[in-house]
Design brief:
By secondary structure, the protein is of the alpha/beta class. The protein is 41% helix and 17% strand. It has helices at 2-16, 20-27, 32-38, 47-74, 93-97, 117-130, 151-164, 177-186, 219-229, 252-261, 287-294, 321-330, 357-370, 387-395, 407-417, 440-454, 458-462, 486-499, 525-540; strands at 106-109, 139-145, 167-174, 191-195, 204-210, 246-248, 274-278, 298-302, 334-338, 345-348, 354-355, 378-382, 399-403, 421-423, 429-431, 470-476, 503-509, 515-522. Strand 12 (378-382), helix 14 (387-395) and strand 13 form a beta-alpha-beta unit.
Length: 541
């Protein structure tokens, strides 16, 4: 099989004019192993060598295509045929090179580019083919989803794509994103898929992919999948007798409940705790209440009646007011709010005060440090996390490493630095000892363990550090990005100089919309506001 792929790769190289040397350099391969095949000493390189060359070739062609597309765009011509793709001219540089994938999978309004059944079908074919090896065995993709009505459209389209290339499929039904990641690895699947738009309203949906190790795919792999989606998608489809088979996994939720419960210290129980749990009418509407109840808590539920249209509607981690009011009404000890796919959370104390992801990470990290469980000498947060968290970690002799926004980038830095705690201010908390992505329920269980052991009210645990005044403003734009203008660059430099030593400035383009996020923080709230307004004003001038 590798010889056929080798011959096809050689033909593609000849057609594009790209040299094998270029491809070998991108793949990081020694050229000697390839030239023996080119000179006729061997029929073809080893199968794994050909696979690396093919992936490098696709990435190289994709980069060249992007260059040509940008060149045409400079002449006012958009070569992309789909009318919605014209939005790409307003996006960041990253999104102009990534046609389908954003910062966290593929996401958008249902039945509009790129969230259509056709694209889901092509994605299933392309990703399925890429993750199928030459091994003589059945290959497997597993699929979970949240409770959106559109999941009934996206799921069968993906199934059709996977089965058409000969990949078997197991369907979980509604299941949290972290559970899908865990089940991908535990079931020895080749690929995991979560259909969800996370905290977005029901009209949006998305597709997240996980590799066989349970981790989200790299930018390079996503680009290679995009290239396959836009290429000859029928190349490599299965013969009729080799089509994939589909089954439902009826016990997926129960498996995850047991996995989550196992992360709670075995010597502790939640008996006597009154907990309000808000599941956002999303993927965890059965699993989270069941896990908390089985660990001994008295639970009161919100957002556990999904109807396909009410996910994240006036509930969940992005709208925690309902949870906070219920906690005060019922005199509960703590409130926990998840988002639609349950990979993030926020908490409130018994007084209804909201506890964000920065404070949650501080609670867990200090507890683990005291028990000798903290790895990496600290934790990983994003550039958006509050400066107060960084100062707290430093005062405890611990480190805070910052990553780009996105739990995927937090995870990459965690793995590189040997950290086992990381996350985002928004409530994505990754506990690498237990999960391969953010898990709202597991993070909540770690906070509950500290609450039980300390025998203190949540209001005393909630304020681990005093947040530094922080202000974020989104500046929407049309046409070219204002970040390239000299006056905007000067305004940013002036802001950085004003806050030097007492705060910081962060200006970054959105990964999903034509807007720029301007954030500043420092000890002087008035100065922070002035800096943000100065930079935002320069962008809109």
């Amino acid at each position: 099989m590798s010889e056929t792929k080798w011959e096809r790769l050689q033909a593609a190289l000849n057609a594009t004019g790209i040299s094998i040397r270029e491809v070998a350099d991108v793949a990081g391969l020694a050229q000697s192993s390839i030239f023996r095949a080119l000179s006729g000493q061997t029929k073809a390189p080893r199968a794994e060598t050909v696979d690396k060359l093919e992936a490098a070739f696709i990435a190289l062609v994709t980069a060249k295509m992007t260059g040509f597309r940008d060149t045409l765009s400079s002449y006012g011509y958009n070569p992309l045929k789909h009318r919605n793709d014209e939005l790409a001219t307003h996006m960041t540089e990253l999104n102009r090179t990534r046609k389908y994938f954003g910062t966290d999978g593929i996401r958008g309004r249902v039945n509009s580019f790129p969230m259509t059944a056709e694209i889901a079908y092509r994605l299933g074919m392309a990703a399925g083919k890429m993750f199928m090896s030459s091994d003589n065995r059945r290959h497997l993709a597993v699929i979970g989803k949240d409770t959106r009505l559109s999941g009934y459209m996206i799921e069968p389209a993906l199934v059709a794509g996977f089965t058409s290339v000969g990949m078997d499929v197991r369907l979980f039904g509604p299941l949290p994103t972290p559970a899908v990641a865990l089940m991908t690895r535990s079931m020895r699947a080749d690929l995991g898929v979560m259909i969800s738009a996370s905290h977005n309203p029901y009209a949006d949906n998305g597709i997240k992919l996980f590799g066989p190790d349970g981790y989200k795919l790299s930018d390079e792999v996503e680009l290679a999948i995009e290239a396959r989606m836009d290429g000859n998608i029928l190349d490599g489809i299965a013969e009729p007798h080799a089509l994939g088979r589909v089954q439902r996994v009826d016990d997926a939720q129960y498996r995850y409940i047991e996995i989550a419960k196992a992360t709670f210290p075995k010597h502790l129980r939640l008996k006597g705790l009154r907990i309000v749990i808000d599941c956002a009418n999303g993927a965890a509407y059965k699993t989270a209440p069941a896990a908390l109840y089985e660990l001994g808590a008295e639970i009161f539920t919100i957002g556990v009646s999904p109807d396909g249209l009410n996910i994240n509607e006036k509930c969940g981690s992005t709208k925690p007011q309902a949870m906070a009011e219920k906690v005060k009404e019922l005199r509960a000890d703590i409130g926990i709010a998840l988002d639609g796919d349950a990979d993030r959370l926020v908490i409130c104390d018994e007084k209804g005060q909201i506890v964000d992801g920065d404070q949650i990470m501080a609670i867990i990290a200090q507890s683990w440090a005291e028990k000798g469980l903290l790895k990496g000498g600290g934790l990983v947060a994003t550039v958006m996390s509050n400066l107060g968290l960084e100062r707290l970690m430093t005062s405890k002799g611990l480190r805070l490493e910052r990553a780009k926004v996105g739990d995927r980038y937090v995870m990459e830095k965690m793995r590189d630095g040997g950290f086992n705690i990381g996350g985002e201010q928004s409530g994505h908390v990754i506990l690498l000892d237990h999960a391969t992505t953010g898990d709202g329920l597991m993070a909540a269980l770690q906070v509950l363990a500290v609450l039980v052991e300390s025998e203190r009210p949540m209001s005393e645990l909630a304020r681990q550090f005093e947040p530094v005044p922080q202000l974020l403003k989104n500046v929407r734009f049309t046409g070219d990005s204002p970040l390239n203008r000299a006056d905007v660059k000067q305004a940013i430099a002036d802001g950085e100089a004003a806050l030097k030593g007492s705060g910081r400035v962060l200006v970054r383009p959105s990964g999903t919309e034509p807007l720029i996020r301007v954030m500043a923080e420092g000890d002087d709230a008035a100065q922070v506001k002035a800096v943000v307004e100065q930079i935002a004003g320069a962008m809109t001038a």
